[in-house]
Write a structure and sequence with these properties.
Its main location: membrane. It is a multi-pass membrane protein. Belongs to the MIP/aquaporin (TC 1.A.8) family. The chain crosses the membrane at residues 17-38, 50-71, 101-121, 148-169, 181-199, 224-242. This protein is mainly alpha-helical and 252 residues long. The chain has one domain (13-243): Glycerol uptake facilitator protein, CATH 1.20.1080. 69% of the residues lie in helices and 0% in strands. It contains nine helices and no strands. Helix 2 (48-74) packs across helix 7 and helix 6 (150-171) runs antiparallel to helix 7 (181-200). It starts with 12 loop residues before the first helix and ends in a 6-residue tail after the last helix. The model has no long low-confidence stretch (mean pLDDT 91).
Length: 252
């Protein structure tokens, strides 16, 4: 029997950051792209609910695809709140959090910029109309699809981000996780959007919120702080709670 130690190779930090950047690009390009293209095209009465379903599925499907494509490299976060929640739960080192978030924000901004570039060559006034409508940004009050206020946005972002992180931590657990984690994660994000689109256009992801708001206008940029702070709050609560409540072990 050989006494040569077994070395386990893991992706470099650069590979992880590239995966997070590309994955977040896919999420924003697919989700926000569906929102801005579909909402500007299907404007007949009665079509709104169908657009909501299409947007919810787009976000869920992009995460599902991204988790299987990039998850083996970086964990498939594509979301600063998920990264913070994972660090709080002890899944990744805190030193990786800031680089992950930078990669995610950059990937998201590249994606929304690509959508704007497509719009520049679209029908007359398409881009101006999309930006006047908020460019699928998150917001409350006059910028909420259902007219909900700031506290509604805060509460739903904390709850649903926490729920999303809980699903991710449970389905990707090192010993109790599922080989089908990507399906659970993608479907949970779809469900989250079905719940929250009428309230605040659904964030649960600061990188997605930044990517849209930079083209949504000044009022939406002024409301952006809610969608930076409170998804992180929900993720931190669940990350620490998961480690305390679910990561205990026993021997029999």
């Amino acid at each position: 029997m050989s006494d040569t130690p077994i070395t386990i190779e893991s992706p470099t930090l650069g590979a992880k950051l590239a995966a997070e950047g590309f994955g977040t690009f896919l999420l924003v390009f697919g989700g926000v792209g569906t929102a801005v293209f579909a909402s500007n095209h299907f404007t007949d009465p009665g079509a709104t609910s169908a657009v909501y379903v299409a947007i919810a599925l787009a976000f869920g499907l992009t995460v599902l695809v991204g988790v299987y494509a990039f998850g083996p490299l970086s964990g498939g976060h594509f979301n600063p709140a998920v990264t913070v929640g994972a660090a709080a739960a002890g899944r990744i080192p805190w030193r990786d959090v800031l680089p992950y978030i930078v990669a995610q924000v950059v990937g998201g901004v590249f994606a929304s910029s690509a959508l704007v570039l497509i719009g520049l060559f679209g029908p007359d006034n398409w881009l101006a109309t999309a930006q006047d409508a908020g460019f699928a940004s998150n917001g409350w009050g006059a910028h909420s699809p259902g007219g909900f206020g700031m506290m509604s946005a805060i509460i739903i972002e904390v709850i649903l981000t926490g729920f999303f992180v809980l699903v991710i931590l449970g389905s990707t657990h090192p010993t109790r996780g599922s080989a089908h984690a990507g399906i659970a994660i993608g479907l949970s994000l779809t469900l989250i959007h079905l719940i929250a689109i009428p309230v605040d256009n659904t964030s649960v992801n600061p990188a997605r919120s930044i990517a849209a708001a930079i083209y949504g206008g000044g009022e939406l940029l002024a409301q952006l702080w809610v969608f930076l702070v409170f998804p992180i709050v929900g993720a931190l609560i669940v990350g620490y709670a998961y480690r305390a409540l679910f990561d205990g072990t026993t021997t029999s």
